[in-house]
Specification:
CATH topology: Lipocalin
Strand content: over 45%
CATH architecture: Beta Barrel
Structural class: mainly beta
Helix content: under 10%
Number of helices: 1
Number of domains: 1
Largest sheet: 10 strands, antiparallel
Radius of gyration: 19 Å
């Protein structure tokens, strides 16, 4: 097995665009010519939704208190050009939010109550906006820039620390996406004194796929 740090995307995941069949061609204005290599072939992979994952992390400012969890991937695609990710996407079901941390105490602070609150209009309004999606637009080094859609709002985000691992049985792509929830209308503020919920939500994305 060999590990390749690539020009990707996260997540997730992880959506990429690459040139397909053809010969090298030249594009641009009269003053600027850009050479585009269209000879590389893209290989499509089938993403295993059961073994792929998106893990989320949210915390109080300063990190003194946090919650972790998972959310199910319902759709995903993945394409490679050689050892580099070239295309893909992933969609998650926000009704599948599942806490995995142990930071709960008392009758009110339970995983079940956390899920109920995250599902309301204070956070993700899952009855109206049941899914979130990421699609890659461009790649530079091991960072991917793409469009994230949450609560019907779409903003440009980056997936960083992207790594692709290839083996005889398939490929694994991982990356980290950190986004500001305020940009998507996830604007709840705690009513507790001296408790400030961080605006940043972290997603650790793992996509496992085979040909």
């Amino acid at each position: 097995m060999k590990i390749k740090k690539i020009a990707f995307a996260t997540l997730i995941a992880i959506a990429f665009t690459a040139c397909k069949n053809g010969n090298t061609e030249t594009k641009g204005t009269d003053s600027t010519k850009v050479s585009v290599d269209t000879t590389k072939k893209e290989d499509a992979y089938k993403v295993n939704l059961d073994s792929s994952s998106v893990k989320w992390h949210g915390e109080i400012v300063g990190g003194a208190y946090f919650h972790d969890g998972t959310v199910k991937i319902t759709e995903a695609t993945l394409g490679l050009s050689g050892d580099a990710l070239a295309s893909g996407s992933f969609t998650v079901d926000l009704k599948s939010i599942t806490p995995t941390d142990k930071n709960y105490s008392g009758k009110e602070k339970t995983p079940e109550n956390l899920v109920k609150h995250l599902s309301t209009g204070d956070f993700f309004a899952v009855d109206t906006f049941s899914t979130a999606k990421f699609v890659v637009k461009s790649v530079e080094g091991n960072t991917v820039t793409g469009d994230l859609t949450v609560r019907g709002k779409t903003n440009e985000e980056k997936v960083t620390d992207v790594v692709v691992t290839k083996s005889d049985t398939g490929v694994t792509a991982t990356g980290k996406l950190v986004f500001n929830r305020q940009k998507y209308g996830v604007s709840y503020k705690s009513t507790m004194k001296d408790v400030v919920i961080s605006d940043d939500i972290t997603l650790n994305i793992t996509l496992k796929a085979t040909k």
